[in-house]
Amino acid sequence: MSNHKIACILISAIVILMGYGVTKVRNKAVIAHQASDTARAQAESTEQQKQIAEIKLKSIDSKTAELRKVYKEWLPYFEEFGDTGDGEQRIAEVVRKGDVFLLSQKFKSERVDGDEIVSRLLIAELVVEDEYTKVMNWLGKLEESIPSCRIAKCSITRGDRGNDIHMELRLEVPVISKPSGLAANQ
Amino acid sequence: MEFIIHDLKNNRQNTTGGLPGILKIVPIAFYLGTIFSVLLSLYFYFSYKAYKSSEQSMNQRLAAAQAEISRITVQEAGIVDTAERAGSLAEWLEGARPIQPVTVAVARSMEKESTIAELSLNRNPEIPAHTFMELKINGGGSQQIETTLEAIYALNYQTYSAQQVKGKNAIDFQATLIYNDSK
Hints:
heterodimer, A: alpha+beta, Alpha-Beta Plaits, four-stranded antiparallel sheet, 4 helices, 4 strands, 25% strand, rod-shaped, B: alpha+beta
C-alpha cells in the first residue's frame, strides 16, 4: 500500500472521528434541550399548583376569619385557667366578694375527651342562700367574672327566711389544652 | 551549493504511484469536514450551554414554587387548626350563655298574686345550648305563664316542647329554651 493511500485512510479516519465527535456534542445538546423542556414544564406546573394553593388559602382564610376573630377575642378568657386550681381560686374569690351565704361548695375535675380545645372541666357545685337581690347580683357577677364558665344547672327555691332564696348551682369551668405549634402561630 | 546537493541526492525513481483521481476528494473533504465540524461543534456546544442555563433557571423557579407551596401548606394547616379550635370554642360559648338574665327576667315577670315556688334551669348535657326550664308558680295562671314567656322572648330565647300542668292554685311549666341568634 502506498503512503498516499495510507494518508488517505488516516484522513478518512480523522473525518469519521470528527463526525463522531460532532454527533456526540449534538446528542448532548439534544439531551440538555429535553432536560430544559422538562424542567420548564415542571416549573410551570408547580407554579400553577402554587397559584391554586394560594387561592385555596385565601378562601380558607376568608371563610374562617370571623371564627378565628372570635377565637382570638375569647382565648384570653379561657387561658386564664391553666389548671383547675386557678378556677377554684377564682370561684372562691367571687363568692367572697359577693358576700353571699355559702351553704356548701364542692369541686371536682373531669377529663373531656374528643374536644379540640377543652381538655378538662372544673366542676363546682355551690349551694348559696341569701337575700334575693344579693344572690341574683352575685350570679350575674359570677358569670361576668368567669366569662368562659357554663352554668350547667341552676335551681332556685324559696329560702328559709322571708326574702331569701336558695340556689343550687353546677358550674363548669373549662381548662383548655395548649394549642399546637400550627395554631399558636396563627 | 547545487552541485553539492546534486552530489548527495541523486535523482530517484518514484517508489509509489500517484494518487488516483477520485481520492483527490479526500483532502478537500477533510478541510471542509474540519471547518464544518468545528462550526457545528461550536453551535451545539453553545446550544448545550444555553439549555443547561435554562434548565438551571427552571429548576430555580421550580424550587421557589415548591418552597412557596410548602409555606402555603404550613400556613393553611395553621389556619385549619385554629379554625377547628375556634369551632370548638364557639360551640362551648354557645352552650355557656349567661343564665342570670333568664332567672331575673322570670323573677321580675311575676305578678302580685304569683310567686315562684321553684325555678330550675338545666342544660342538656348533649346540646348545652338547649336549656331545660322547669318553673313552678304558686298563684297566677295561664296569664302569668304568658307574661313570663314574653319576658323570656324579650331576651331572644325561644321555647320548644312547652308543657304546662295546672294544679290547684299552682302551675307547673316546662320548656326547652334555645337562644335565637338571628334576631
